[in-house]
Amino acid sequence: MATAAARTVLCSSQLHLKLLSFPFYLSLSPKLPISSNPNLLNKNPVFSSPLPPVRCLQYSTQQASTTRTHEAIRRPNVVDILEERGLLESLTSDNLRCPPSTSNSTLKVYCGFDPTAESLHLGNLLGIIVLSWFQRCGHKAVALIGGATARIGDPSGKSLERPELDIDTLEKNTLGITNTLTRIFNMDMNLNNPIVVMNNYDWWKEFRLLDFLKQVGRYARVGTMIAKESVKKRLESEQGMSYTEFTYQLLQGYDFLYLFKNEGVNVQIGGSDQWGNITAGTELIRKILQPDDGAEAYGLTFPLLLKSDGIKFGKSEDGAIWLSPSFLSPYKFYQYFFSVPDADVIRFLKILTFLDLEEIDELEREMKRPGYVPNTAQRKLAEEVTRFVHGEDGLSEALKATEALRPGAETKLDWKTIEGIAEDVPSCSLAYDQVLNLSLVDLSVSSGLLESKSAARRLLKQGGLYLNNSRVDGENKRIEPEDIVDGKVLLLSAGKKNKVIVRIS
Ligand SMILES: Nc1ncnc2c1ncn2[C@@H]1O[C@H](COP(=O)(O)OP(=O)(O)OP(=O)(O)O)[C@@H](O)[C@H]1O
Ligand SMILES: N[C@@H](Cc1ccc(O)cc1)C(=O)O
């Protein structure tokens, strides 16, 4: 059937969390949501970092009545954590809340990503965060690149068949996504619990059609397949659905079976649009492998992260929030979260960061108090998410650019900082001779910063025109050699938001 899959085990050079190198012992108390039990959550290194580990519990309501007096080794309950943070939509079985022999069994969870773009995006970050929560609770995680499934195209949530991708594009995308996953997980996790990255092309490339039909197709019921949301919707549409796309759910279903059988993976996670594909897997496992009681395969979905217009964050939308720094600079990434509306910021903090819920609740209370400094919660969100995705270096790059770009900032601009934000700010090139001695009013117009000289004069009078972040007062200001930063660039700003970089050619 299938060959052993190639795997990449990621190792971290930075030990950010000294996690689970010891068991978590319980002092049992009635089942409390973890975040609302201050003895558990607040001081646990799983949730924040530097404080000493404490006793932590996971047991079902049923167990609570019978085992209250016992001390047992338990892990923090990952399902409870996800639920409290708004990261749980559906479970295939409530047993996952307390799988049999939980006390010392480790779950192995996977999430798949089809390489349909060179970078992952904000929507995909939820899968990464949920994988990381499993790891933080001591479970093992696998990130699966859908090298095979991307050739088919997941119909879930799509009104049209996806365009076919050529091999070069697929390979480029696979590399890009693998780099992002390795970067994030390397920064996040420790050597004791590295993530494993696999590619489903490794087992699909050798699976022959006749074997597939015999070993898998025979167990899949067409009625059940047609009833899946992803299929129903498409069948109602004018374009219908190809047989190839129709089989997608079986490919993803078989992936789960393959990973269950060969790698001991017993949980699959995904956004709620993946429910049909995930349950295709749990069904195949149940029918084909008939695992013993207590060796169940579980599916867990999280809600889709939606934009204010109700459309999911994805790669297909304009202004996608990419996770790869070559698609969206850490500065722009940081700015996106810094600008999240007050109405969304607390929800985002719960979903997208690993901060204690207590800390988030306190921020929420603070937001309602008089004297709250606007954007404090957004700043925390932007810092946490940027650090998780781009690391300390990415965060400090973003903070440096943010500060440097603040009109009136004390920081002296250098050429490197200005170039660092160049992709996020409009720019133009002008010859040295054209710029030297030119009035600032004229330069504001010729660089495209302002529409007219009268607008430039008006802004100057109001004190809203900046050259290299310094406010210019005199209407007669002309560009001098020392205004050209490192002899290469100038930064013009009209108010806080509008900026232009002038490169000297
Ligand atoms: N906005 C989102 N919120 C939560 N999860 C998401 C979101 N977008 C994608 N995911 C999840 O990320 C995983 C990979 O998704 P996928 O590679 O298909 O990206 P996609 O964004 O759905 O693609 P496209 O933009 O082409 O629709 C799936 O588990 C999917 O549910
Ligand atoms: N179907 C998932 C990707 C995926 C591929 C293979 C899997 O086994 C699991 C998930 C998506 O479109 O996002």
Automatic annotation (TrEMBL):
<dbReference type="Pfam" id="PF00579">
    <property type="entry name" value="tRNA-synt_1b"/>
</dbReference>
<dbReference type="InterPro" id="IPR024088">
    <property type="entry name" value="Tyr-tRNA-ligase_bac-type"/>
</dbReference>
<keyword id="KW-0547">Nucleotide-binding</keyword>
<feature type="domain" description="RNA-binding S4">
    <location>
        <begin position="439"/>
        <end position="496"/>
    </location>
</feature>
<dbReference type="InterPro" id="IPR002942">
    <property type="entry name" value="S4_RNA-bd"/>
</dbReference>
<dbReference type="InterPro" id="IPR002307">
    <property type="entry name" value="Tyr-tRNA-ligase"/>
</dbReference>
<keyword id="KW-0030">Aminoacyl-tRNA synthetase</keyword>
<protein>
    <recommendedName>
        <fullName>Tyrosine--tRNA ligase</fullName>
        <ecNumber>6.1.1.1</ecNumber>
    </recommendedName>
</protein>
<keyword id="KW-0436">Ligase</keyword>
<keyword id="KW-0648">Protein biosynthesis</keyword>
<dbReference type="Pfam" id="PF22421">
    <property type="entry name" value="SYY_C-terminal"/>
</dbReference>
<dbReference type="InterPro" id="IPR054608">
    <property type="entry name" value="SYY-like_C"/>
</dbReference>
<dbReference type="InterPro" id="IPR024107">
    <property type="entry name" value="Tyr-tRNA-ligase_bac_1"/>
</dbReference>
<dbReference type="InterPro" id="IPR036986">
    <property type="entry name" value="S4_RNA-bd_sf"/>
</dbReference>
<dbReference type="InterPro" id="IPR014729">
    <property type="entry name" value="Rossmann-like_a/b/a_fold"/>
</dbReference>
<keyword id="KW-0694">RNA-binding</keyword>
<keyword id="KW-0067">ATP-binding</keyword>
<comment type="similarity">
    <text>Belongs to the class-I aminoacyl-tRNA synthetase family.</text>
</comment>
<dbReference type="InterPro" id="IPR001412">
    <property type="entry name" value="aa-tRNA-synth_I_CS"/>
</dbReference>
<dbReference type="InterPro" id="IPR002305">
    <property type="entry name" value="aa-tRNA-synth_Ic"/>
</dbReference>
